[in-house]
Design a protein that fits this description.
Length: 196
């Protein structure tokens, strides 16, 4: 728990410096919120090295908000998860019920933006994400695994108006390793962003 607090404190300290500079320069911050979704896929590997893909595809969602300190720099926080759990074939662990996996992440990131044209922007994000993975219905393999890791993202936005934009992003929330498990959260998603 202490390492999560330290990592979050360091990230906030690094992100606070540009915010203070922007305020000193008289820049007027703008706030934004957004939502995105994409295709959901999950794979697990058992002790024999066999890989299984999930039988279902719960809808992934991302909700986020941020503050644009100027035309090039923003600070963003968000949540990424799914509307349900990924279900796997019970042969995976030889259980009587189908194993289920739920994954979600909270993140805080610095975001840099470059305008390609009047309507199109490209951006990149760098920050820290806290991920949680919950395995259930897997017998002795049931567990909750948490990890705080660096995260990054790249994407593009198309402005319909000054307030509303469509977005396309790829984000990687880090790889968590624990007790022989290697769990990764990443998502390609499309959505809408509203500035106000």
């Amino acid at each position: 728990m202490l390492k999560h607090v330290i990592a979050s404190s360091l990230a906030l300290s690094v992100l606070a410096v540009p915010a203070v500079r922007a305020a000193e320069n008289g820049a007027s911050p703008r706030f934004y919120i957004g939502a995105a979704t994409g295709q959901s896929k999950s794979t697990l590997e058992n002790s024999a090295g066999e890989r299984f893909s999930s039988k279902n595809h719960p809808l992934p969602i991302k909700l986020y908000g941020g503050v644009e300190l100027n035309d090039y720099f923003a600070v963003e926080a968000g949540f990424s998860g799914t509307t349900g759990k990924h279900e796997f074939d019970k042969r995976l662990y030889g259980t009587a019920t189908e194993p289920r996996l739920q994954a979600r992440a909270l993140y805080l990131a610095a975001k840099g933006t470059v305008a390609v044209s009047e309507r199109v922007d490209l951006h990149a994000k760098l920050g820290v994400a806290h991920s949680r993975f919950e395995m259930s219905n897997a017998g002795t393999h049931d567990r909750k695994i948490d990890g705080t890791k660096p995260m990054f993202g790249i994407g593009a936005a198309y402005k319909f108006t000054e307030q509303l934009a469509g977005t396309l992003e790829f984000e990687h929330y880090g790889t968590v390793r624990e007790e022989g498990y290697k769990l990764r959260r990443q998502q390609l998603q499309a959505g809408l962003k509203l500035r106000f």
